[in-house]
Amino acid sequence: MKSQIKLRLFQLLIIVLISAGIGFIIGNYKITASWNKYKPIVGITNQNPPDSKNLDMKLFYDVVEKLNMMYFDKSKIDANKMVSGAISGMVSSLGDPYTSYFPPKQNTEFKTQMAGEFSGIGAELSINEQGQIIVISPLDGSPAEKVGVRSGDFIYKVNGKSTAGWTLAQAVENIRGPKGSSVKITLVHSKEKEPKDVTIVRDTIQVKSVTSWLKQFDCKGGTCVPTANCPSCVSAAYIRISQFGDKTNEEWLSAVNKLLPEIKKQSNFKGLVLDVRNNPGGYMNDAVYIASEFIKSGPIVKQRDGNNHTESMDVNRTGVLLETPMVVLINKGSASASEILSGALQDYSRAKLIGEQSFGKGTVQQAVDVDGGGSVHISIAKWLTPKERWVHGKGLAPDIAVVYDASVSSKMTDQTDNQIRAAVLQLSK
Predict the structure, then answer these.
(1) Please, what's the b/e burial string for 373-388 (b: 16 or more CB within 10 A of its CB; e: otherwise)?
(2) Can you give the pLDDT at residue 223?
(3) What's the predicted TM-score (pTM) here?
């Protein structure tokens, strides 16, 4: 009897084990069958890494495959965004805020801006060494300038979203938008600690890179006051360059040709005020072209690459203002190409710099278009002044320090601007 009970128990145990085994096999088969039917959202078409012993792309492809298989919200998987994000991350690993990847949309907007017209708030942005989005300078008359955005401001949030970890392209994408739309920016002024919210209505930004005028000033009593119809007063010409873009050279020639006949009529002409305040830079060749207006010969800027090879960019034309007395206005928004121009004029003792310390961007970028419509902006060299000064992170020190006084200056370019008046006073001495 006992042996029969044991036999039945043994048979029951066998049946349970077989059933469990069959269940496991069927369940496993169903899972396997399910994955066999899986079609990845992002397919990898090329897994062959370049010829390099140090580059192994296996990890990258493994991560892509795991995201394909395991991420719960498949609607969020976008092949183009994944590739763009990977490229941006790769570029940012260099730790160089000026080497960046611009996806197709941002690349188009960048080219539009350099051509002189775009829609947005009108501020030149960058990333500092701490990875923060900062304002190099607001553009003249822009919505950003009108609400009080200043050079050096740290953009803390955009529409309530933290900018921590953003690339420059992400910042541009979130801040720009169609004319008439608004964006809320939380920023911290460089000399303040508390964040401040400003709402900016975007507009079409038409960048006229060169503006000019010729005025009379009464400089008696140690100060220069703009005046008119004063035969005994001094006169001074003024040219402002807001950026070095596609039309700068053409606009420069137009401004100079317009001013020259007027200058010849002046009996007490003292010189030219060249204003590159809040000029974030642009094309290096344009800086050399403008500098050649004032310098007879020699290098304007030197490029030094990673192999310590130095190439000089020299005066490339004969200027018509070679003997004209001049001073240059700079501030912390003067960067890159505007520093190249100012540094050359200072090195040759051609002009005194007046104002505040410049921004300090001493590297050269080359924009290279890539497949898909994007571009990579790569720092290819550092630039040096003719006397081989490297201003990176330091800026140019003014020969005469004058802090901008907003309480007496209605706006930059206006004759009531205290820095302009200080520049005219220097010319009148």
Answers:
(1) ebbbbbbebbbbbbee
(2) 87
(3) 0.73
